[in-house]
Specification:
The complex is a heterodimer of chains A (331) and B (330). By secondary structure, chain A is an alpha/beta fold. Chain A is 44% helix and 12% strand. Chain B is 37% helix and 22% strand. Classes of the chains: A alpha/beta (331), B alpha/beta (330). At the A-B interface, loops of A face helix 3 and helix 12 of B. The structure holds thiamine diphosphate and magnesium ion (MG). Thiamine diphosphate sits between chains A (74, 122-124, 152-155, 180, 182, 184-186, 251) and B (32, 61, 63, 85, 89, 92). Chain B: This is Pyruvate dehydrogenase E1 component beta subunit.
Chain lengths: 331, 330
């Protein structure tokens, strides 16, 4: 893609407050999930996105409703930012019939066909081939849609990653590869997994436009994603964004997090994307304390309601256990 | 007098690994997060500190590469123990396991052998949904050239690894994730453990319950439950899933004249199907009732607790099947 044609416009100011609200909404949702997990209301694996919210919010900001999104097992932030209703996500965490996957997927497998949210995939790198296929189908049908795919730095070690970047570049498919480089794949640091740790450089070797982005700065992410999406949509071929970020919490609720030193975590927390944007908005007189507590209140209300609805929602009948194993056919 | 000590399944696997690393310097471990992290199920915790990064090798997320590398290292005389986090992720290494490990000895006319051990967890029951819960060991048991074992007891978890390492062929060890916290008393002086034979875990006269791995405990509990109603069930733990120990199975069925196979895999094309077929082939005229199977319902494993429970073989399902075979026939 030619970057001169697609210079980003400044993100309008009202969007900045909205981006803050969206990040806060994900943060508060997940804090509540952690509590509900301790209370055994949510079970299975739970992977929190705390610290990485700017990535999901910034990227989805650049997508249009028609575009597709493929996610990982760390998918709450992606789903919420994409517009999957919070009550449907919470109900899914509860394993209820009203959940966005009817209780069959849980935290790691949120889906929403209406939002073109192709789901949380719990096999590392397993979503990349899907995104290539979504894009291929669009091209073959003459549709100008973008398929965005989130995956972690750990996925870069899998064969599927390399096969997909090559295929997408070879066929010039409209895929936006969004690598959430949080420096760790479970307990394995990036420099213990990769001989070359510059992931954007790696991607460019396949013939993709690629560049690193400060994933702790939602404005930077939104701008980069917007530029990338414009190119991809215009038919310039796939694009790769390396979103440099950090997870503040352990890999999952099972992880004792023995492999990172506390100082490193603290250093990254200084760059909290939510605090950063809030401070910036305040400094520019764009956000008052009242406005912020208004946002917090709105989120709390939505969250309380989502939890209340999940608590009382029905579960799928056991008789329906084998429903959806195959497509339901008209009789 | 032998001294004894209480050991968990997890500790037993760890001790087996430590023991193998100490006994044979060709042994090394390789897998994702086995070193610094200590293993996703904390099995290898502490081994990196004890044996160093040369022999406790953390790998990137590259199942095909490191499983294949294990095959290569075994070809040149090493004794690799490769850990795959769960059988679900082993699908990314399926090509290496099936097309290389299982074929090279034969395809080369016997020029090569592959003394490789691959360990992985299997099974459901913890609400991890459809990409973390499947029991695919039956698939591997389909493949000539592989040996497949499933330690269901702490003693087997402790003993099978060394025997597997001494075997010249690739051995896959399936550890059901629900077993790691189970505990038992082990003798201080351990006898060698074979990986060829099934074991009768409960002797009985009225019906044979054949199972392995994660469903052994449920089968034993079911046997106790029916015992209260006067049905004396024999429970067989297969231990080896390939090759199968037909002799132990048939010997039991010929005595009890009834069989129930319990398998956490899906029914279609399953180990349970294979065992059931062998019983009809080899002991048909000894049967007093059709063989029953208790398997996982044919659906990807769902997240919701009540659905997952309903999908998996439960004690009550085993009891019901035992009652049916005992009521049926003469
Ligand atoms: C193929 C495969 N291998 C191993 C795992 C176990 N596992 C789940 S998440 C994870 C780490 C992935 O790290 P990364 O891709 O960086 O994503 P992050 O968790 O940091 O968001 C591992 C090893 C898996 N789910 N799939
Ligand atoms: Mg990562």
């Amino acid at each position: 893609m030619s970057s001169t044609e697609t210079q980003p416009e400044d993100t309008p100011i009202d969007h900045r407050t909205d981006l803050l609200r969206q990040m806060l909404r994900i943060r508060r949702f997940e804090e509540r999930c952690a509590e509900l997990y301790s209370a055994s209301k949510i079970r299975g694996f739970l992977h929190l996105y705390v610290g990485e919210e700017a990535v999901a919010v910034g990227v989805t900001h650049a997508l249009s409703e028609d575009d597709a999104l493929v996610s990982t097992y760390r998918d709450h932030g992606h789903a919420l930012a994409r517009g999957v209703p919070m009550d449907a996500v919470m109900a899914e965490m509860y394993g209820k019939a009203t959940g966005c996957s009817r209780g069959r997927g849980g935290s790691m497998h949120l889906f929403d066909v209406r939002r073109r949210f192709y789901g949380g995939n719990a096999i590392v790198a397993g979503g990349l081939p899907l995104s290539v296929g979504l894009a291929l189908g669009d091209v073959m049908s003459g549709r100008r849609r973008v398929s965005a795919c989130f995956f972690g730095d750990g996925a870069v070690a899998e064969g599927e990653f390399h096969e997909c970047l090559n295929l997408a570049a070879l066929w010039q498919l409209p895929v936006l590869f969004c690598c959430e480089n949080n420096l760790y794949a479970m307990g394995t640091a990036l420099n213990q997994a990769q001989a070359v740790t510059d992931l954007a450089l790696r991607a460019s070797s396949y013939g993709l436009t690629s560049w690193p982005v400060d994933g702790m700065d939602v404005i930077a992410v939104a701008e980069a994603a917007q530029r990338a999406v414009e190119g991809v949509r215009a038919g310039a071929g796939p694009c790769f964004l390396e979103l440099r970020t950090y997870r503040f919490r352990a890999h999952s609720m099972y992880d004792p997090d023995r492999y990172r030193d506390k100082e490193e975590i603290e250093r990254w927390k200084q760059r909290d994307p939510i605090d950063g944007l809030a401070a910036d908005l305040r400094a520019h007189g764009e956000l008052t304390d009242d406005e912020l507590s208004g946002i917090e209140e709105g989120i709390k209300k939505e969250l309380d309601q989502a939890v209340a609805m999940a608590e009382t929602a029905p579960v799928e009948p056991v008789e329906d256990l084998t429903r959806f194993v195959y497509a339901e056919r008209p009789r | 007098m032998t001294t004894t000590r209480k050991t968990t399944y997890r500790e037993a696997v760890r001790e087996a690994l430590r023991d193998a690393l100490s006994r044979d310097e060709r042994v090394f471990l390789m897998g994702e997060d086995i070193g610094r992290y200590g293993g996703c199920y904390a099995v290898s915790l502490g081994l990196l500190e004890e044996f160093g990064p040369e022999r406790i090798r953390d790998t990137p997320l590259s199942e095909s590469a490191f499983v294949g590398a294990g095959i290569g290292a075994a070809l040149v005389g090493m004794r690799p123990v490769v850990e795959i986090m769960t059988v679900n992720f082993s699908l990314l290494a399926l090509d290496q396991i099936v097309n290389n490990a299982a074929t090279m000895p034969h395809m080369s006319g016997g020029q090569f052998s592959i003394p490789l051990v691959i360990r992985m967890t299997t099974g459901a029951g913890r609400q991890l949904a459809a990409q973390h819960s499947h029991s695919l060991e039956g698939w591997y048991a389909h493949i000539p050239g592989l040996r497949v074992v499933a330690p269901a007891t702490v003693a087997d978890a402790r003993g099978m690894l060394w025997t597997a390492l001494c075997d010249p062929d690739p051995v896959l060890i399936f550890e059901h994730a629900s077993l790691y916290n189970t505990a038992a008393t082990l003798a201080e002086q351990l006898a060698p453990v074979d990986i060829d034979h099934a074991a009768v875990r409960r002797a009985g006269t009225d019906v044979t319950v054949i199972t392995y791995g994660g469903t052994l405990a449920k089968s034993l509990e079911a046997a106790e439950e029916v015992a209260a109603a006067g049905v004396d069930a024999e429970v067989i733990d297969l231990r080896a899933l390939r090759p199968l120990d037909d002799a132990t199975i048939m010997d039991s069925v010929r005595r009890t004249h009834r069989a129930v196979v319990v398998d956490e895999g899906w029914r279609s094309g399953s180990l349970a199907a294979e065992i059931s077929a062998r019983i009809t082939e080899q002991a048909f005229y000894d049967l007093d009732a059709p063989v029953e199977r208790v398997c996982t319902v044919e659906t990807p494993i769902p997240y919701a607790q009540h659905l997952e429970r309903a999908a998996l073989p439960q004690q009550s399902d085993i009891v019901a099947a035992v009652r049916r075979v005992v009521a049926g026939g003469g």
